Amino acid sequence: MNRRTRTALLGSALLLTVAAAAGSAGASAHHQSGREAAALTGKAKLYRSAGDDITFSFDAHLAAKDTADPMKATGTFEFSHYLNGKGAWAKAKVDCLVTGGKVAVVSGVVTESDLPGAEGKRVGVTVHDLGRHDRLGYSWVSTGRPGAGNEPPKCVSSAPFEKVKKGTGDFTVVPWQPEL
């Protein structure tokens, strides 16, 4: 390789390095602009023809500075299920949040509950934010009720197979946009 070719290649490499650094700084500035890296918020009741009163609420957030690590998500979520005056409720501390488009998967460890054996167990929930027709799924559909079955790993749940009761869906998903 002659001297002119080496100089051109080194110059190109230098330009690519500067451009990459500038792009990285721009991406960092984007994340510092105040937008969260991801979020899942809202409350809704599930539809059940038998009249079950099933409610889910979410306040889960991933800060912009933590965009590379969804396991640094914070917040809580709650759920309850009652029929004919019998049932239970639980509150979980978020330990992971991943969103993609209008779908969110959140997991957390139950911190408070009147469901025997549920405290200290991980659960996961999936939400599909479809405006007034949101859908929801939960890990215990396949693992057994919280505290009585297997625990899912962080950020694992089921497909959003449940329909939200008409007029109650107000989930909001902020899509995650990690730098890949």
Count of DSSP E strands? 9
Radius of gyration, rounded? 22 Å
Which range does the strand content fall in?
35-45%
Helix amount, in percent? 10-25%
Q: DSSP helix count?
A: 2
Task: Give a short account of the largest sheet.
Answer: 9 strands, antiparallel
Distance between the termini: 34 Å
Give the CA-based shape. Answer: globular
Q: Which segments are poorly predicted (pLDDT under 50) over 5 or more consecutive residues?
A: 1-32
Average pLDDT metric: 84
Layout of secondary structure:
Elements: H1 3-31, E1 38-45, E2 53-62, E3 74-83, E4 86-100, E5 103-113, E6 122-128, E7 135-138, H2 140-143, E8 162-163, E9 172-174
Structure description:
By secondary structure, the chain is of the alpha+beta class. About 20% of the residues lie in helices and about 40% in strands. The protein has helices at about 5-30, 140-145, and strands at about 40-45, 55-60, 75-85, 85-100, 105-115, 120-130, 135-140, 160-165, 170-175. It has a 9-stranded antiparallel β-sheet with strand order 8-7-6-5-4-3-2-1-9. The longest helix has 29 residues, at about 5-30. Mean pLDDT is about 85; it is low at about 1-30.
Features:
single chain; 180 residues; alpha+beta; nine-stranded antiparallel sheet
Short description:
With 180 residues, the protein is of the alpha+beta class.
